Amino acid sequence: MSFPRLKIGLYAFLVMAVFVLASYRLFRRNTSAGPTKEQVLIGTMVQGLNSAHYQPEKLDDTFSNRVFDLSLKRDDYRKTFLLASDIQSLGKYRNDIDDEVKTGRRDFFDLSTQLMTQRVKEMQILYREILAKPFDFTIAETFQTDFEKATWPADKAAQHELWRKMLKFETLSRVSEMMDAQEKAKTAKPSVATAAPAAANAKAPTAPEPVRTPAQMEAEARKRVLKTYDDQFEELLEVSANDQLASYANVIANTYDPHTDYFAPKAKEDFDYQLTGRFEGIGAQLREKDNLIYIEDILPGSASARQGELKKGDAILRVAQGAAEPVSIEGWRITKAVTLIKGKKGSEVRLTVRKADGTTKVVPIIRDVVINSEAYARSAAITDKNQKFGYLDLRTFYADFNNDGSPNSSQDVKKELAKMTQEGVKGVILDLRYNGGGSLNDAVDMGGLFIDSGPIVQIRDAAAAPLCWRTRTPRCNTVGPW
């Protein structure tokens, strides 16, 4: 469970405001034009980490090398975009990243971003060109699927060959799957529904997959591979400058340890929602189809449900903030569109939607707090062989992190246990299979509901203070650090 990730991740945001002024003064000494947003962000984050992290990093060449290697791994882990010459060009910054962080320069970040953007555009043209022609599976070839052992292509010709083999391998894998499915369909016994529907209103059986020749399978497989890569590259080409900066900041944070993350504002909102089950918006689930964003569902009790005019299947064409000029979101991705649709409680958003009958309507909605009750503790009594047991599902150790009245998992679990006790259960199954972590304090408090006394977890801070037992009432162990 990712308790350290939560603690350090949230703390990094708290220290951000504290160190902005210090960062400004630091970079002001190095440039007469004043610090850029990128300089302030990276500098602030590093200062915050070196002040709050359990094991602060020394900004030296060793640190620089680790950032360099992790950055390349994140940008091009399959070694298919960058050329060996690109790696050589970037290599001159291998020992300079620590100095760039200290002085506010961004040469390595700028060059790596520029190269990746250029190569992504080139590879989009390349994979479409390769997938436009059939593959010859009668030729024996090899392809390195372990990318840790792969090397960056020496030149454009080697890169073309690498992509050809990679796409051929992925197409062949899909052909193999289709052949297995077709062979299985031949030997499968017909179901009762297929043989004779039980009633006139019985659901019609699904039509069997058409019998294809190997050549037809190869053509169909190439189409599927093309669709997969088109979707992936659409996202790659829509990455904004802010997203690129956030990714680089996250590389630096992960260099301290794998559980230390930088959250951009949107990522932090998503993280808070996962841990609290609450956010401010209209309360509608969205989906993408044919370059439009549709209403997939309306959350019960939400602002959209109370307003009543927004329906499942409506396509959102434009979004306006109150009486402001509407913005067209046709062709947008959901992640970008929600930045306009979500907003503060009490604010108005006007959605221009196309209804199922083709008519267009402006739907005004006053945003409110949206609560996902499924994220909270739930219980049920189960009777088996005349014995009654309790089942308690807890997906995260949620808490009121933002002091906005959100529930706490420890208090909710306490209520559910009391309810099941009144129902006379003999025991309780606490299901934590899908629990990814959350509030350490709530986890400790919850342990106290099952354990009368004794330590639950041990913690130690960056100042090497004595090791502390965490119980329902935290106290320090007099033995000292281990």
Average pLDDT rating: 83
From the alpha-carbon coordinates, what is the Rg to the nearest angstrom? 28 Å
- First-residue to last-residue Cα separation: 22 Å
Helix amount: 40-55%
Q: What does this molecule look like?
A:
With 482 residues, the protein is an alpha+beta fold. The chain folds into 3 domains: 1-193 and 210-263, no CATH class; 278-371, Pdz3 Domain, CATH 2.30.42.10; 373-476, 2-enoyl-CoA Hydratase, Chain A, domain 1 (Alpha-Beta Complex). 46% of the residues lie in helices and 15% in strands. The protein has helices at residues 3-28, 37-52, 61-75, 84-91, 97-103, 107-131, 156-187, 192-195, 214-237, 241-256, 265-276, 303-307, 334-341, 409-422, 440-447, and strands spanning 278-281, 284-289, 292-298, 315-321, 327-328, 348-354, 360-366, 368-371, 378-384, 387-393, 428-431, 457-459, 468-470, 475-476. The strands form 4 sheets. Strands 2, 3, 4, 5, 6 and 7 form a 6-stranded antiparallel sheet that branches. A 3-stranded mixed sheet has the order 9-10-11, with helices on one face. Strand 9 (378-384) and strand 10 form a beta hairpin. The protein is globular, with a radius of gyration of 28 Å.
Outline of this structure?
This protein is an alpha+beta fold. Helices cover 46% and strands 15% of the residues.
Keywords summarizing the entry:
disordered C terminus, single chain, alpha+beta, Pdz3 Domain, three-stranded mixed beta sheet, 2-enoyl-CoA Hydratase, Chain A, domain 1, 482 residues
